[in-house]
Design goal:
170 residues; mainly alpha; Growth Hormone, Chain: A; 82% helix
Length: 170
């Protein structure tokens, strides 16, 4: 979800919000930087015993709902940008939670690197497929159609997280 939006954020800012390329660069950097807050928050919440599954469900839900507000174009520009910032910040929760879950999900300690590797491969696949899918949808159907695709990805992430309840990740 993250790369699906953030690979198009400069274009979104320039086309929909009529900002210059330089301003789009600054705003995009700001929105990307807050992702760090989500990563750090995930670490602090996990230390306090917050459920890994709950964190992934929460982050996916917020990202999916934010994507609706971002792509549908129903909100003023400032609100749309703030949703981009929220999307990024909450999106930082997911990778930190997944990576910290590797030792819990691995059947043995020796297989933890394999789990991390599989997580990285999934991330890499998403970095390729997400932007291509969003680009195709935007080109064929316009910006609002991207809301459905990112929203659908959020639903899949939530269902996947809930499916992990039987695993040792809770």
């Amino acid at each position: 979800m993250f790369f699906a939006l953030f690979s198009f954020l400069p274009v979104l800012l320039m086309q929909r919000m009529q900002v210059s390329l330089a301003t789009a660069g600054v705003l995009g950097a700001l929105a990307s930087a807050v992702n760090i807050i989500g990563n750090l928050a995930a670490g602090m919440l996990l230390v306090r015993g917050v459920s890994r599954i709950g964190l992934i469900v929460f982050a996916s839900l917020v990202m999916g709902l934010s994507a609706l507000g971002i792509f549908l174009g129903l909100l003023p520009d400032s609100a749309t940008f703030l949703l981009c910032v929220l999307f990024s910040m909450v999106g930082g929760i997911i990778p930190a939670t997944l990576l910290s879950s590797a030792p819990v999900l691995a059947p043995t300690a020796a297989l933890t690197p394999v789990v991390v590797g599989l997580l990285m491969q999934g991330s890499n696949l998403g970095q390729v497929v997400g932007p291509v899918a969003i680009g195709g949808v935007i080109e064929a159907l316009g910006w609002p159609a991207a809301a459905g695709l990112v929203g659908g990805a959020a639903v899949l992430a939530i269902l996947t997280a809930l499916g992990l309840r039987g695993a040792r990740a809770a």
